[in-house]
Task: structure prediction
Amino acid sequence: MLFTADAWPGLADGSITLTFRTWTKPQARTGGHYRVAGMLLEAVDVAQVRAGDITDADADRAGAADAVAVLARMKVTDPDRLVWRVELRYLGADDRAERRADDGLDAATIDDLKARLDRMDRRSGKPWTRQTLRLIERYPGIVSTALARQAGRERMAFKADVRKLKELGLTESLEVGYRLSPRGDAVLRALG
Result:
């Protein structure tokens, strides 16, 4: 889920615990965990509601002045339109941040990460993990389009694979492009 930067402090301090979305199908699920601006959030409840049923109390929980402001933000004018109501709970800092910083990896952790990379390569039918890590190491901060072209891959598939490496704590997204995390650097050194 995406939030504008002005909502981040409220999400972190627990004053924003609700959001409304005009999704055509749900983009969150009850119990799902979502990373936003260095935070880990849980969707406590996800349900459709009539736009006209949004109250000022709901709006306050969503960080808005009133229900009219919530509807205006979503550009919803029909009170009968169904919108998604997502109740949120702040769980803490994004767990990947701690993983990314951990570069003091023991042999068992290195072996586990190597095995995970091997499984990712096998599942895709072609090795990509090490090539992608080496590209990011060589070209930090380079736009994903150029990296994907260098790898001979389609941009969106390349970005999806980088997200898998990011989930392991091996890469970090920059304003433009990526870089290896300290953990990713340690793993790449261990790979030789």
Summary: The first strand starts at residue 18 and ends at 21.
